[in-house]
């Protein structure tokens, strides 16, 4: 767990964001305490606390005094909007740049996307 | 029981020199060892209430440094102070400080020819914050009977006893000097979890020394790296992680991005090169790397530690 190249607190934050996005952590649901995090993943509690502090600043989590950390209302919507915005810059943009580099005509890319879409749609229907 | 205030420590220009002595090598041959400098002008502050890793190669001065804090040794010159923030005192022959500092060495410091329960009784008398219940629970977890004589324990079990004493002491300054090296992997993981769980509940200053960094780096908040008796760096571990990065990609592109930077390490695989560089990349350079098809990676603390403490010829 948390073997990626980024700092561990960044990876913890990413994991929690992903869980909120996927709905595994519902709004108003309590997240693990820093102590539980620290002992479960064998990391310094301060590292977990740093991840939580960042998520509080982003509005993903909020603290309830004496109770712990909870997922904020509207957190999933905000994360979805954020990720949708970044999708074009970070995922589709580079993919299209690569297509240009390889000399794949835009028409082929569009046809591929529509093709995949159609096949997924068909699968969903059946 | 209330948790006592964690201890911080300060060292100012500390030098420790061991005098010349004769040593027996290979049977009856005696050789004269010249005076060696174990610590050479160490100035360092260790934050109270934080888990700090003390890293260094063999002979870097880790154990000497730690033994000063526990008043097992005294500096040749310079000052050492240990205590709660704002009330640090010289630990030497200072009963109040030393009763609140627990140094666990690999040897375990146990009474070898009496039942383990005797050693535990000794520590219970010595340590004002001793938690007997925790000691029992940990020994049970490590599968060690208090009826065993420590002399009959394996190296790993002995280390586990040391770990137990270190934790059950609940000392405001708890030092583990390479204690976990003899433990097998499951025991080490259990030890790390127990340290974190007890630390979270009873915050105190914990120092862990090692030359095996990979497994323990995530436990640390701060890190001190010693190199040949000097402090190479003392900072939050996140800052240490930011001290280097790696570039992987086509040789020419990597060389261009590297420029005049100091290369800590270079690895070649066909036309692909990976270099480990000191410092951090700016946003422009990141963009340039991406455009050139060069991957930017972080460097594990273990590798940084190895590269930074590698003997160098010229610039030292």
Report on the biggest sheet of chain B: 6 strands, mixed
Number of helices of chain B: 10
Radius of gyration of chain A: 19 Å
Largest interface: A-B, 17 and 18 residues
Proportion of helical residues of chain A: 55-70%
What's the structural domain tally of chain A? Answer: 2
Strand content of chain B: 25-35%
Describe the structure.
Helix content of chain A is 65%, strand content 6%. With 126 residues, chain A is mainly alpha-helical. Chain A folds into two domains: 8-73, Arc Repressor Mutant, subunit A (Orthogonal Bundle); 76-125. The longest helix of chain A has 27 residues, at 75-101. In chain B, the strands form four sheets. A six-stranded mixed sheet of chain B has the order 7-8-9-5-10-11, sandwiched between helices. In chain B, strands 13-14-12-15 form a four-stranded antiparallel sheet, with helices on both faces. A three-stranded antiparallel sheet of chain B has the order 4-1-6, with helices on one face. In chain B, helix 4 packs antiparallel against helix 5 and helix 5 runs parallel beside helix 6. With 316 residues, chain B is α/β, with parallel strands linked by helices. In chain B, strand 13 (263-269) and strand 14 (272-278) form a beta hairpin. Chain B is globular and about 65 Å long. The chains are: A mainly alpha (126), B alpha/beta (316). At the A-B interface, helix 2 and helix 3 of A face helix 6 of B.
Quick tags:
heterodimer, A: 126 residues, mainly alpha, Arc Repressor Mutant, subunit A, 5 helices, elongated, B: 316 residues, alpha/beta, Rossmann fold, 2 domains, 6-stranded mixed sheet, 4-stranded antiparallel sheet, 15 strands, 32% strand
């Amino acid at each position: 767990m948390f073997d990626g190249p980024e700092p561990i607190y960044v990876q913890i934050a990413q994991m929690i964001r992903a869980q909120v996005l996927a709905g595994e952590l519902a709004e108003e649901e309590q997240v693990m305490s820093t102590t539980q995090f620290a002992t479960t993943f064998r990391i310094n509690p301060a590292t977990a606390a740093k991840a939580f502090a960042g998520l509080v600043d982003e509005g993903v989590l909020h603290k309830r005094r004496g109770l712990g950390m909870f997922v904020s209302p509207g957190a999933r919507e905000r994360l979805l909007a954020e990720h949708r915005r970044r999708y074009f810059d970070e995922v589709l943009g580079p993919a299209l740049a690569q297509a240009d580099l390889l000399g794949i005509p835009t028409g082929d890319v569009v046809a591929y996307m529509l093709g995949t879409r159609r096949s997924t749609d068909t699968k969903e229907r059946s | 029981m209330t948790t006592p205030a964690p201890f911080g420590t300060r060292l100012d220009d500390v030098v420790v020199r061991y005098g010349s002595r004769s040593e027996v090598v290979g049977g009856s041959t005696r050789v004269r060892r010249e005076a060696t400098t174990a610590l050479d002008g160490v100035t360092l502050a260790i934050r109270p209430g934080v888990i700090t890793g003390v890293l260094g190669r063999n002979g870097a001065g880790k154990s000497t440094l730690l033994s000063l804090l526990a008043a097992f040794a005294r500096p040749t010159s310079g000052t050492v102070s240990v205590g709660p923030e704002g009330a640090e005192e010289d630990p030497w022959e200072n009963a109040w400080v030393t009763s609140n500092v627990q140094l666990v060495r690999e040897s375990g410091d146990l009474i070898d020819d009496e039942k383990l329960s005797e050693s535990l009784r000794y520590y219970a008398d010595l340590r004002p914050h001793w938690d007997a219940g925790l000691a029992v629970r940990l020994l049970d977890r490590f599968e060690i009977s208090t009826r065993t004589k420590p002399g009959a324990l394996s190296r790993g079990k002995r280390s586990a006893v040391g770990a137990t004493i270190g934790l059950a002491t609940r000392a405001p300054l708890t030092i583990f000097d390479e204690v976990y090296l003899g433990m097998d992997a499951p025991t080490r993981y259990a030890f790390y979890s127990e340290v974190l769980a007890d630390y979270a509940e009873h915050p105190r200053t914990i120092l862990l020394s090692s030359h095996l960094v990979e497994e323990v780096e995530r436990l640390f908040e701060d890190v001190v790296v010693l190199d040949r008796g000097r402090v190479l760096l003392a900072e939050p571990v996140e800052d240490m992680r930011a001290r280097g990065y790696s570039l992987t990609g086509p040789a020419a592109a990597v060389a261009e991005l590297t420029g005049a930077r100091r290369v800590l390490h270079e690895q070649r695989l066909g036309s692909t090169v990976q270099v480990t560089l000191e410092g951090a990349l700016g946003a422009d350079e990141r963009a340039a790397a991406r455009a050139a098809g060069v991957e930017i990676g972080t460097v594990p603390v273990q590798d940084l530690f190895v590269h930074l403490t590698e003997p160098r010829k010229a610039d030292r």
